[in-house]
Amino acid sequence: MSPGVLSVVSAALRRQWLLAVRRPADTLNPLLFFLVTITLFPLGIGPDPVQLPAFAPGILWIVALLASLMAADGMFLSDYEDGSLEQLLLSPASLYVTSLAYVTSHWLVTGLPLTLLSPLFALMLQLPVQALPALMLSMLLGTALLSLVGSIGAALTVSLKRGGMLISLIIVPLYVPVLIFAASAVRYAAQGLPAGSQLFLLGGMLAFAVAAAPFAIAAGLRISVDAG
Amino acid sequence: MWTFFHKLGSPPWMYRISGRILAVLLPLTLAMLVAGAIWGLLYTPPDFRQGNSFRIIYFHVPAAVVALAGYYVMAIAGAISLIWRMKMAEVAMKCAAPVGAAMTFLGLVSGAIWGKPTWGTYWVWDARLTSMLILFFLYLGVIALYQAYENKEAAAKACAVLSLVGTVNIPIIYKSVDWWYSLHQPATIKFTEESTMHSSMLQPLLLMIVAYYCLFGCALLLNMRSELLQRGSGTQWVRALVVGDRGTGGETRVL
Amino acid sequence: MVTLRGLALQRGGRTLLCDLDLNINAGQLLLIEGENGSGKTTLLRCLAGLSSLGRSGSLQRDCDEVLYLGHRAGIKAQLTPRENLAWACRCQGWATTSIDAALARVGLAGLEDRICQHLSAGQQRRVNLARLYLSFDHGAPRALWLLDEPFTAIDRAGVQALADTVAAQVARGGAVVLTSHQDLPLDIPLTKMVLGVAA
Fold first, then answer.
1. Dist. CA A35–CA A59, nearest whole Å
2. Taking CB atoms and an 8 Å limit, are A82 and C71 in contact across chains?
């Protein structure tokens, strides 16, 4: 008897939520990393009130990208180590659906908090207030994209002992379009220009990634469990 | 048709036939490279804006073209190995990665050398160079992933998945970088529109592109042959080869 | 239920099995014995469909459900036994009604809501074993059970209860493949297969 899609998705979300609540460090560390790294930039390039806001869109997005990379790294690790992943592969539930549910729950506890807190970080970098809506929208779409793409890397490297460095190497090039469009959306908005086209492009890429990435994630998980 | 595929999957057959292909292709490639270089460097008029420095396009553009094509060759071989579980496609994918990375590196270096007289600096963040740099990283990612897996069968599968993901992404990456660098020079050769290059400059370039494709093919085949020998170490056909009667080929004895 | 023809398994450049022909029929209990490193676990994972690297030959499987209990418990340390099993049931499409009963049968009554981290290793293994009772209660009768050393870490009464369930599963038309170092308190006919370490 194959379980219903909704039942599996809701069960997966519930399970990942419980895990996130009981292991809060996994959720908080990327956020703290974001905060700490943002602090480094004014120290490194100077607190110039002209330069800093000009660099702010790029800084915010590069740091978001790194935070998301850090979060993606451990995504399947504990499930792989304790054998939950094997059971997931054996269950009649579609791996496409469960992968998507995993990514969704992962994004809910990493990407979404980042999105919600991004205005705070933006103000630290003196980003003009008028750019905040575009920043949050680009974060909303962009972090979801990063989660999807990052999960492919996580799935492919989970069985490897030193997957951490490797995942950056294989995933960062794939993050480039997200960085380009998202950062430019924020930059446009900061200059008072319409940022709609970049956001639409991000949305389109997200729609495509939602449809396509779970195939790659599922394939990666199968290979990793097999190789382990 | 099916017997052909069957043969394609047989290492001794592939080893033998690739040797024959190389015997023809290798001299041909060298001749084309030399001819293209002489033609391009000595017998074309200098560019009215860039003078003689433009001539490095005879090395840069073919490398850039073949580097990108190489990624697709790698990804298609990966897809074949995933779908039909063909070992030879796995070998081709594994061997295409370093060759493609080398082509990309060549493109980057020649682009940087071109940059010095043109822009006055070795590196500019222009769209084509930036895209190539990212392509180089994509190649490195595939190579690193392959190296990281101890089980080489799993490594090949993982790399096939990664290169397919990369294939889907490359057009997006190229388009986004183009968009990012919206002030870049227009692409020099367009087959659909009237070329912006004079035909006397274009013809040697096309010859060089063909030569680079052949060079890629040669390097891929050479790399595959050494990989086949490594994988087959200890098998009968490799032993027969080492003993010394290479001309006759080993298939009938092996099968 | 499972048909193997000319199966060969290689792992790490070593041949574990070669040219294995095997039928596993409904209502059959197959016991796989062999020294450590003889490929028992790999064979079981292969039957489960988790392992295809280094495999050649044909493997055909025709069963309604696969239950695999391996070395790794598949239990999340941060969840309670009840939560762990609820997730397992949802993935399998089973009802969640008899989770407590299943936990009671593996001797974990009263510990349903304790975080698994605070349970002993043996108790965690027993949480995993409870899946087997859930499969028996809710799963398809024509299921293939693949049990890798299921009798370690449980006491004598538990061993007996487990053996009875295995016998009942076989009796109702399922198939069970298990590896074990211990003597089994089973009085049903079983097929034994001994794997040797290849020279």
1. 12
2. no
